[in-house]
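[Q] Does anyone have a clean structure-token version of this?
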Amino acid sequence: MFPAILLSSILALNPVWESKERRLSWPNYGDGYEYVVQIFTDREYTQLYIESETTTNTWIGVTLYDTNLYFARVRYSNSETEDEDYFPLGQFYLNLENGYLGEDIIYFPPLEEDEEVEDLIKDLEVDDEKKDTDDFIYSPIDERDQLPDSGDGESVLGESTKAKELCRIFLFKEKGEVDASFRCDLGVELKKVEYINWGEYFTLEIKGTYFKSIPSYVKIYECKKRTVTDPSTWFGCKKILVDEYIGPLPLRFVGNIQVDGKVYPNTNWGFGDTEFFVKAKFRDDISRKDVRLRLELSSYVKGKEWIDFLAYIRKTLITGKAKAPDSNKPFSFPFEKYIGVSQWHGCTVYQCPHKGIDFGSYKEKVLSIGDGKVVSTGYDKYGGQCFQGGRYVIVKHINGMHSTYFHLDSYSVKVGATVKKGSVIGVSGNSGKWNCQRLGYHLHFETRKNRYSSSHVNPIEYIDADWSMVPTLRYKLFPGRLSGDNPHPSF
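[A] Here you go.
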């Protein structure tokens, strides 16, 4: 029979809480102060778990996803007075499996066994009797799956209906390294492979589905200590079982594309709740090369100690001949070159809705995205003293849609003027205000179905551009910038 602690881990496959939100508040230090909340997992404030966006509020809600003891503090600062310090918010203990949140660490005894748990344990024990538990074979996952060729370079398969079964995982620890082998289905399926020739470069994008977590049975092995009295340890490693874990296993993925055995460095990827994408840009054609999708999988288990480990999934790809971009989007990019974004369209952490896209441009030439007529110019003050759009231009296009360009440094067109796609209409700047504050340099750009602001639509759906070349600016410092209708949520 397995130890009682393993039984409670099995029952924890359906935790009381998947996550928990905690509201934290602090004193108001006065006008001009900004605050950043930091949550750590150690008393010395060295192991950072969460850091919030900068805010002028005196409270914030944070969502926690792990059972742990946490230590919180708020950093407050004032750029005008150069004042900066920390205010402690205290410690608290969160136990997701038992639904507990408080200041004290509470011990929850193992739950009583039930028939379902006993049956699971018996199945595992019977299965183990069929195998030599001293033998461990490490074999990295290599699934040589190929998508059927649809003739047009796109292959879209149906949604996965596979259920998650108990995953058997074997870990082998030796000299500080951990090898991992999976005997289970991780849910990785390819849904679409798209290889496009853009003229000056090629792009390869893979979309698919995966499991974000799996119920697991983990067995941990080490080499038996060499002794004079045990001949099996004299000539190499004698693998023995040293620990076990049964419970949910979180999976974290990183995506890369491998060409002729080498991992291509310039790859973008994103992993959501059930779907993922991996995309790379190539200078040369790779259609005749050995191309594979390489997913790096990492996770951790807590038995006698915390163990982190890595594994790899490789899928061979058939790219076929690169096809030309197939787009019916009517408009072009509003700059002469690709410029990064500081806030996307849609419901972002800063504004909901944000009616356009903010491009982080410093005095760049702004281009009309299509043929049309200038219907309005001037200095926007409709938001009052504290919310001003600054110098702006609005163009009505031949298909009836409108494009708007705000916070311009200057504009070079007049109302009634005819503009062509790609013609210069102004220069980006920082005119206007937000919350009565001076703006940083950027272009707030909108596409609208008609002239009214309420008719705004996502510009990405109408601008013919390779959006994988348009990154989110400084997203590592400001993760909230990734929110909204971001076409690539990881960068």
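[Q] Thanks! Anything notable?
[A] The mean pLDDT is 80.
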